[in-house]
């Protein structure tokens, strides 16, 4: 990438953001990855701006880190100022958009340095996507942007944006690599880069190893850099576990062999992470802290969702049973885990090999929370809940027996590769599955009320004291 067309934007940065402000207020909240839906954007502030292609030409390109300021949610203090989430934006600049880029339109600029030009989401345009890959390939240093590479990258790979709704954005390059561009970014070590790198050092084949990545200097002195993007090998012809499960369900096909193989893959990843990164022991005080968090989430959800209230005492018993075990002196091992595991985070290659992807964790949590050591059962519980969701999502009548068979097969596969069956610790597993189901109830009530019966069916089972599997 030529240094003649790449520079950090200093002079005019304030004018640039001011000219984009009214357009971003309309466009940003409509994006799938925008975290502050339902709250007005009161202001934007610029963390960093880097010019990747000069706007004076036929095509301009800016890399922006923009903080969106919003009031806190009512539950956290209505009207209280919020420090603002930081978002990564790639802004393309043209005189007019060709029809093929119409879905990427942000708007037409009426004042400031880009007055009279059209701005749009640049990832939809092959040329800007090529600029990003070339920066990674050449280990570019552009203003505050830093690109690192640990594998070879061909320079002639054709990009295409992944249009499926995601909490981030992805571009596939020539069926060889996939670039995950993180949208809501935080300064510090991101597990979506940290854990795949650690697994690559362990030689674990279940997670695609990062080929290159991009970071940015933090806007505030003393803060760690932002992780912006990770490039990994693309598994050509792969199907994610959610799509595959629904397809097999629709055909009335058995899925237990795949569930068992997926259990083995999960255990292999956990075993490799245990070798690569420190483990800790959870005794009474640590477990009580976990239980307190679960209890608080249950109370908040029951307050927000009336349908949950009749089951709250039974659900709480799952947490008190865990606290009682810890008080008796029982301890558990905690380590780094995936943190947000479900069928959609798993890929099956045409050869039948399962891989785990997207180690970012729950985006709503802080990086510190996402990087905490936790019992592996938390990942297992997430996958068990995912089988339930699949069984209720197929056309026709829900098939709970399909979910039950898959859940059992998954645990069997996990035991085969990990040496310990999650079902041998039913109190811990029930507590984590209960906590996950409570989260699902709150999420569905807020975002997809028609789906609320899915987690409520699990809530009824768990509140009655039934073992998870």
Average pLDDT number: 92
Shape type: globular
Query: How many DSSP helices?
Result: 12
Q: How many domains make up the 3D coordinates?
A: 2
- The secondary structure category is alpha+beta
| DSSP strand content | 15-25%
Helix content bin: 25-40%
Q: Radius of gyration from the CA trace? A: 23 Å
Beta strands, count = 19
N-to-C span = 55 Å
Compact summary:
The chain is α+β, with helices and mostly antiparallel strands and 469 residues long.
Describe this structure as you would to a colleague.
A hairpin with a 7-residue loop joins strand 9 (159-161) and strand 10 (169-173). It is globular, with a radius of gyration of 23 Å. Helix 3 crosses helix 5 and helix 7 runs antiparallel to helix 11. Strands 1, 2, 3, 4, 5, 6 and 12 form a seven-stranded antiparallel sheet that branches. Strands 7-8-13-14-11-10-9 form a seven-stranded antiparallel sheet, covered by helices on one side. It has two domains: 3-233, no CATH class; 239-463, Aminoglycoside 3'-phosphotransferase, Chain: A, domain 2. The chain contains twelve helices and 19 strands. The protein is of the alpha+beta class.
């Amino acid at each position: 990438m030529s240094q003649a067309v790449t520079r950090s934007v200093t002079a005019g940065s304030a004018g640039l953001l001011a000219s984009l402000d009214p357009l971003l207020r309309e466009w940003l909240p409509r994006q799938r990855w925008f975290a502050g839906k339902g709250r007005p954007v009161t202001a934007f502030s610029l963390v960093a701006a880097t010019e990747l292609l000069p706007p004076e030409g036929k095509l301009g390109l800016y890399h922006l880190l923009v903080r969106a300021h919003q009031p806190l949610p009512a539950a956290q203090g209505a009207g209280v100022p919020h420090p603002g989430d930081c978002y990564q934006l790639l802004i393309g600049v043209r005189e007019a958009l060709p029809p093929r880029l119409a879905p990427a339109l942000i708007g037409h600029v009426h004042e400031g340095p880009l007055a009279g030009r059209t701005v749009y989401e640049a990832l939809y345009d092959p040329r800007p996507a090529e600029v990003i890959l070339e920066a990674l390939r050449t280990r570019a240093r552009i203003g505050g942007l830093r690109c690192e590479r640990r594998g070879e990258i061909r320079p002639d790979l054709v990009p295409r944006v992944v249009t499926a709704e995601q909490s981030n954005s992805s571009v596939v390059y020539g069926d060889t690599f996939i670039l995950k561009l993180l949208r809501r970014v935080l300064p510090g070590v991101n597990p979506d880069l940290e854990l795949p790198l650690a697994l690559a050092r362990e030689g674990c084949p279940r997670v695609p190893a990062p080929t290159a990545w991009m970071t940015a200097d933090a806007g505030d002195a003393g803060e760690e850099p932002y992780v912006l993007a990770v490039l990994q090998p693309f598994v050509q012809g792969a199907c994610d576990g959610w799509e595959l499960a629904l397809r097999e369900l629709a055909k009335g096909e058995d899925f237990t062999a795949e569930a068992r193989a997926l259990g083995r893959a999960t255990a292999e990843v956990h075993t490799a992470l245990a070798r690569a990164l420190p483990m800790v022991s959870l005794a009474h005080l640590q477990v009580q802290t976990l239980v307190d968090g679960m209890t608080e989430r249950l109370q908040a959800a029951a307050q927000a969702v009336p349908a949950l209230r009749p089951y709250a005492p039974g659900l709480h018993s799952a947490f008190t049973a865990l606290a009682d075990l810890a008080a008796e002196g029982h301890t558990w091992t905690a380590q780094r885990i995936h943190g947000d595991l479900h069928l959609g985070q798993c890929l099956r290659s045409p050869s039948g090999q399962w891989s785990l992807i997207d180690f970012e964790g729950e985006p709503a949590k802080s990086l510190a929370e996402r990087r905490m050591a936790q019992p592996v059962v938390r990942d297992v519980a997430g996958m068990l809940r995912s089988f339930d969701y699949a069984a209720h999502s197929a056309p026709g009548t829900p098939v709970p027996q399909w979910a039950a068979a898959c859940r059992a097969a998954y645990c069997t596969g996990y035991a085969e590769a990990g040496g310990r069956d999650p079902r041998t610790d039913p109190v811990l597993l029930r507590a984590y599955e209960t906590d996950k189901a409570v989260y699902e109830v709150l999420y569905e009530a807020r975002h997809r009320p028609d789906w609320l019966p899915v987690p409520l069916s699990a809530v009824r089972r768990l509140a009655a004291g039934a073992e998870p599997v």
